[in-house]
Amino acid sequence: MKKYQLVIFDWDGTLMNSEGRIVASIQAAAERCGLPVLSDEESKQIIGLSLEKAILGLYPDAEQSQVEAMAQAYTQCFLEECEVEMEAFDGAEAMLYNLRNQGVKLAIATGKSRKGLDQVLAECGLGVYFDITRTPVESASKPDPLMLEQILEALDVSVEHALMVGDTTFDLEMARNINMDRVALSHGVHDSHELDVHEPLAHFDDLQALHGWLMTRI
Q1: Distance (Å, rounded) from C-alpha 106 to C-alpha 5?
Q2: From CA 16, how far away is CA 89, in angstroms rounded?
Q3: Among 104, 168, 171, 189, which residue has the least CB neighbours within 10 Å?
Q4: Would you say the pTM of this structure is higher than 0.90?
């Protein structure tokens, strides 16, 4: 059985239950910018992408000025105005603590902005567990694998000894693009049928089940 030296996590929908706040912020930003307010189901499908790419995914005919205005409005809504609560999924900190205690290196590869990730990590207190984090600000949006390549290089770990954990097709496709092992979580954005297209090694409905699986492979 392969033993992993590094586990890379997506953030939103994987470790942090932030779907409601993201969707509410997208909808508020759209209304503020005069764009159609999409349904919750439509809005959540782009979670995981970089902000500009996500906006274009929802509004492919938007002009650049509209994209920039909505990106600014979304950031303000998410970080400063939205009252929708978010918290880590049950079992997140216990899993990170135990992995770290066993000497496993931990990383985040997320579609969030650097400012957004740093703020939420400080607020929730989970930032102490990670050796490195990557966002599209200093890398490229998923499913481009550049974030993963940067993490591997910085931590001096080969792709064969690393594992990607995510809740979206963007996460799994990113890992698949460099032949990195990957595991799917279905408690986030995309359903199991969508995720299984990218051939994850395993599929879990919650972090407790993932935790048990990981502890036998480190």
Answers
A1: 9
A2: 6
A3: 104
A4: yes
